[in-house]
Amino acid sequence: IALLIFRDLPDNPAVEWDTQLLATLVLQHIEAKNINLVVTFDAGGVSGHANHVSLYAAVRYSVCSLLWVPPWAAAGRCQVLVLESVNLLRKYISFLDVLISCLLPRDALFILTEEETEQAKRAMRCHRSQLLWFRRLYLLCSRYLVVNSLRLL
């Protein structure tokens, strides 16, 4: 199955993944690990990254057609939160976006501590092959390293 994943789900910002295949894999993982909360990208994929958008589509497909549970039987239901994509200005104003995010409607808001922000930056730096110029800008001033607003799917 690993060969299938690498061939059919390449890490490539221009490649859309197969929704049904990915939904099946995600659902299998949710069921195998008894997961009750999934956090994923929204329809914008934060940066328009095709893989991120595909993941949202697959999770939405899973929730709407495979995981749907009637409201009266929702006790064991898996909840899904989607990370809000914001415009370019908000994306790169770092901690200044906290005030904006607090004022806007959302279902969940996570504000990282300075220590958590530094931990996230250290994790990003471990992936040197991924550190292109725009990711270096991301490390300097992205709001996503400080604040994340999410909505229930």
TrEMBL record:
Supply one GO CC term from the record.
membrane
**What are its E.C. numbers?**
3.5.1.89
Per its UniProt record, what InterPro entries does this chain match? GlcNAc_PI_deacetylase-related (IPR003737), LmbE-like_dom_sf (IPR024078)
Gene3D superfamilies, per this entry? LmbE-like
GO MF annotation list:
N-acetylglucosaminylphosphatidylinositol deacetylase activity
> If you read the UniProt record, what top EC class would you report for this enzyme, in one word?
hydrolase
Q: Which residues form the signal peptide?
A: none
Q: Name one GO biological process term.
A: GPI anchor biosynthetic process
* SUPFAM superfamilies membership: LmbE-like
State the superkingdom.
Eukaryota
Q: Which family does it belong to?
A: Belongs to the PIGL family.
The protein, known as? N-acetylglucosaminylphosphatidylinositol deacetylase
What species is given as this protein's source?
Pomatostomus ruficeps (Chestnut-crowned babbler)
